[in-house]
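I have a small job for you when you get a moment. Would you make up a two-line entry for one protein for me to read? No commentary is needed, just the two lines. Write everything out right here, beneath this request.
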Amino acid sequence: MTLSIQGKTAIVTGAGRGVGLAIARHLAERGASVMFADNDESALASAISDYEDGDSHVRRFVGNMSEKLAMANLLSATLDAFDRVDILVNAHRLVKDSDPLDTDMDALEEMLRQNMLSGLRLSQMVAKRMIRQAEGEGPSAQTGAIVNISTLAARRPIPSMLGYSIACAAQEQATRGLALALAPHRIRVNGVSFSSVMSHELQCALKDNPDTRAVIIAGTPLGRIAAADELAETVHYLCSDGARFVTGQIITVDGGRSLADPVTARIL
């Protein structure tokens, strides 16, 4: 099995902080050229500050990933910098509470737009480019890999975060559907669903309520909260040729939490 991604080009959205940043850094450190994309300019500048001196394999793009023009510009910027794109990681997420009895659909529509539709549209754009750049290659060549980042909320609903739960579930179904649609083009599409991982949102939650740490650890069979780098390793595997026969799968990275936790509180 080879896990090498040396020489490949990746786009990672949500790369300004937390899980997205950990994934982007991990791929860059393993030899990929990486476009760090986020809508927070200051966070993004800080995220790649370590790479700016002489690191030609790292670039940044600031834009709202829910806007089609920003997606098109992101792809163009990546091609201008690196000439191709082999990997897309949709790690951008918007996490908000929502009242399940609120009949105003604005919050739900925002969750769907930010957490599912934006990643789906960007995947479609990037997939078209992957298909074009693979023309003339042999039938066994890997055209590209797309990985969508979700959370356990997709399968274990959280009443106080109904919109987010629905959006995560929709994203996972989009992952499976796109995997089937793109399989003839040798583009693999998979997802990573996480919980009990130190995301940016969880860091903020722990600052507001330190007792949350003990609750999460108690509900996690492996007895700890994982570093974001540990999730990044799973993404790395899915992007590599070691996973060349894996598509349409949602891999859960949660320390066994989904097996034991009744999920009576929010998961991040």
